[in-house]
Amino acid sequence: AAKNGLDGWLRYAPLPCSHQCHSKLPSNIVTLNQTTRSPVYVAGSELQKGLKEIYASHVQIHHGQHGQCKDFSAVIVGTVAQYRKTCGPADEVPHLDEDGFWLNTKGSHVRILGQNEKGTLYGTYEYLSMLAQGNFSDVAYSTNPSALIRWVNQWDNMDGSIERGYGGPSIFFRGEKIVDDLARVIQYARLLASVRINAVVVNNVNANATLLAPENIQCLGRIADVFRPYGVQIGISLNFASPKTFGGLNIFDPLDTTVIKWWSNITNQIYQRVPDMAGYLIKADSEGQPGPQTYNRTLADAANLFAKAVKPYGGIVMYRSFVYDHNLNQSNWKADRANAAVDFFKHLDGKFNDNVVVQIKYGPIDFQVREPASPLFANLLNTSMAIELQVTQEYLGQQSHLVYLAPLWRDILDFDMRVDHKPSSVRDIVTAKRFNRKLGGSAAVVNVGTNTTWLGSHLAMSNLYAYGRLAWNPTDDPEDMLRDWIRLTFDLDRNLLDTITRMSMDSRPAYENYSGNLGIQTLTDILYTHYGPNPASQDNNGWGQWTRADRTTIGMDRTVKNGTDFSGQYPPEVAAMYESNETTPENLLLWFHHVDYTHRLHSGKTVIQHFYDAHYQGAETAQGFLDQWESLQGKIDHERYEHIRQRLEYQAGHSIVWRDTINNFYHNLSGIADKAKRVGNH
Ligand code: GCW
């Protein structure tokens, strides 16, 4: 079959079978569960497909009988319990946590044993990833997830459009209904399972209550049936006002008994059709969405309403902390949207039921190219939390610009909050270790669509791949993950590998340089599109994404001494660092401090000269991507080569538009000349 972008990193491109490969390739597959549509069964079929496509090796699947466990050169796939039952003792297998697996390629046969069936499937994809990279080394290791919540959120609307989606219309919905043909959903399930994502919320957080209509609940069941064999559960977003707007009640107060009954009834109906639904995702009292504040109830009252409804089924509620006033007034020096999450949630710490998880965007504003880690992570000591990331490049070039995001995510995950003067990395907080919670993890907004690139650009898929890897192990190295992804997606060619690695690793610094640097956010259009340069839109808007730039000064003063108090939301050591412009990392200077354009950076350069230079440097790097890519012509199939080439050509030009728009804007505003005489008329 012709290979195309749909396979993503599960391409199984043909490789020559060297001597080592001949002696190492399994000649049988033994699966320890023959129930079709079980993850172990799927694992067997996936192995068979991989072996055939990569090494043209046609291998039979046997359904575990005792004798076969000893078969020479078989690959055995199943859970540890299934292995014990069919094959005998499994004493060598180390203790595994839920979803974990053990992979052993040493000796006469390969064993892939999961703690559960999902884990077995993950281990199978791991083994296939080795094979597809021509890696036949002897390994024996186990791996366990850092957290049990490894979700993705789709922002798909029932009419088939996708909010902030750049890869075409929805694979789930069309014309207020769930689509008949779910072939693309199967493909998506494979991709997600291969990077160990275990749940997908299928509809937009700006939710439409019609999803709860009986016929739609039945159809949700069809979606769940497609994901289930891959170990991926589904979840749904709810509209808080549904009892009134859809259910015919005249109220949606979370403490009202008719409302409570209504939600539990709906929940029962859903679980009847989808007994393993992962849970609910809630956006309430945010950006015009209805919420408990209408009835003077707390956000915890709202979260607990749903928590009680799903509790009997083992479901969880992801409650978003993205709650803020979007009609802020900039004439108030103290107004600051960044303060909102802590203001709204801190006093509710400890009031959430134990199956509620507060889902927190990584930064205090909104998926910007550079933000400090959200201080909310350090303020909820008795509440389960998850981090919300965005694979969708909403503010980061919307898949028309190459921006590899793993380094950004690692910056946040590695950040040490120093809660109680003890090591408190965001990673340890959200994986529930730091405060000993039962639940924790991550969710990423991933707006894949029907486009054959999935996200709108082939190169953007490295972000989905890396997200899954980090959700499993948040200390995975961004460059290592990238190299695996490149080998699996394109080819093992050394030069190709180095080139795409270099471009990707340079991409976030480049974007930051030509869009907005020194912590000023992206300077993109804030009012409508979130795309392209529009520095003027960054002030005097109700959204509270401000720069406070005037003729002589720029930056938000978020200090306690004379600003918005935001820095005071961090534990003392971190607060002290951000309070002074001497100790604030320069890449966040303008996030925390309001300074003169002539303020000197550690380099000796002024802020304004740094702006000019960084924008030139970033645009130059981006223009270089095109040449680097073109050096790979002939090494990649024409279709993908050309699609990517066009994107990079566009980015090269658009980076110049960015550079000049931003530089001219601040040049006009400040009247300060560029030392290198590039900006303005000379
Ligand atoms: O970034 C903003 C987006 C909205 C989005 C919102 C959110 C789904 O512009 O489109 O709504 O965030 O995260 O809820």
Automatic annotation (TrEMBL):
Q: Name one GO molecular function term.
A: alpha-glucuronidase activity
Domain (Alpha glucuronidase N-terminal) ranges: 8-127
Is Hydrolase one of the keywords?
yes
Active site (UniProt): 287, 366, 394
Example of a GO biological process term = xylan catabolic process
Domain Glycosyl hydrolase family 67 C-terminal: from-to ranges: 456-678
Q: At the top level of its lineage, which domain of life is listed? A: Eukaryota
What are the UniProt keywords, alphabetically? Carbohydrate metabolism, Glycosidase, Hydrolase, Polysaccharide degradation, Xylan degradation
| Primary location | secreted
Where found in the cell? Secreted
GO cellular component term of the entry, any: extracellular region
Q: What chemistry does it catalyse, as a reaction equation? A: an alpha-D-glucuronoside + H2O = D-glucuronate + an alcohol
Record's keyword annotation contains Cytoplasm = no
**Residue limits of the Glycosyl hydrolase family 67 catalytic domain?**
134-454
Q: What is its EC number?
A: 3.2.1.139
**Biological function:** Alpha-glucuronidase involved in the hydrolysis of xylan, a major structural heterogeneous polysaccharide found in plant biomass representing the second most abundant polysaccharide in the biosphere, after cellulose. Releases 4-O-methylglucuronic acid from xylan.
- Family note: Belongs to the glycosyl hydrolase 67 family.
Name it: Alpha-glucuronidase
What is the native source organism of this protein? Penicillium alfredii
**What would be the name of the gene that encodes this protein?**
aguA
